[in-house]
Amino acid sequence: PVTTRTTSDGTLQIGGVDLAGLAARFGTPVQVLDTADVRARCRAYRAALPDAEIVYAGKAFLCRGMARLVADEGCSVDACSGGEVAVAAAGGLPGDRIVLHGTVKTDEDLKAAFTAGVGRIVLDSAAEVDRIAALAPHRQKVLLRISPDVDAGTHPGLTTGTASSWFGMPPAEACEVAGRVLARPELELAGLHCHLGSQVPSVSRYERAAVRMVGVIAALRARYGISVAELDLGGGHAVGYAEGEPCLDPALFGRAVRGTLARACAAHGIDEPRLLVEPGRAVVARAGVTLYRVGAVQRCGDGRTTVLVDGGMSDDPRPALYGARYPVRLVGRATRAPLETVRVAGRHCESSDVIADGVRLPADVAPGDLLAVPVSGAYHASMASTYNQVPRPPVVAVAAGASLPLLRRDTPEDLLRRDCS
Ligand code: LLP
Which residues bind substrate per the record (predicted)? Predict the structure, then answer.
């Protein structure tokens, strides 16, 4: 959906709201979330996979308002901690539409999950079977997470489905662990799960994973005579940040994966499982724009220009962690100044605090100017920290010309709230 509008005076509107006005009202940095965009992405997934359950990965961005939004669009939520379960539930998600994940599930995580009545718990390792069976207050549906040994073709820090990954058990172990689940009346083996990683650039990786997972389902049927009802293929669909980066289309994904599944199941003579997918970034990344105020322009000794802004790695750690690249643009005023290649850096005291390097900005950018960084709806607010005791920015939803704060900025009191020294 095109809810962004730029006019010749440099005004940028999102969801019918002027960004410069928002910055004046809420201060900077501020993250703006276009809720029409989030809704449209949810709908695109539901249209691409009408029989599947779309499980939004809450780790990308979660608060009550976001949970309400995706619930309203018919999605479930993947929570990877008791905290995410609690926020999803507080946002009105019914328990049966929450899936609990986690390589390590603490007693507190499980307590939150059982309190919310989560529909499914994903078991990552054999040791979880007896522990969760012993704690479950009622018969609990579980999925077994398998690491299918498929290279996601992404950044090593975002790869979770290869043979060396600890996210889920190797396929060879699945039969034995499934047997242990089947032996526990407190548990119901609802299905299998895998997640290849994040920013997965092509559907062929998912097709490969689907074929492997169908092989495991067939092995379970041969060994125990059971039919596995659900297959969760995880999330990780790539979103393009900078120009030319790959982007995975939900419709293409839906067609390819369903075709592959149908063929693989037919080859083994097994029923097709119901599909679950867990997109996080693909639902919310493009809905977000972060606004920063320029605080200084440093002409460095080597001739490079560094534009310094009032946020940085505390609200966007992605460039430092994954070498992520972002476009940046000047908003709020028109200029005829020529473009210059600059580095945009944050306010934190380290050289890895670079928001974008090698971006083109008007040469007259000066303190007080507003810069916008798009595609910042996923893994920004959710990974934000208060490093250097810098307050985390607010997140403001915009739609149909109105703005509604979802998260407020940290206050000085917030920064001291945990301090009991
Ligand atoms: N399902 C599971 C089990 C996951 O572990 C993840 C992400 C997802 C779904 C959603 O992946 P997505 O569709 O959002 O790519 N902090 C990193 C991303 C880490 C993702 C971890 N797991 C980043 O900023 O790129």
Answer: 281, 318, 322, 350, 379
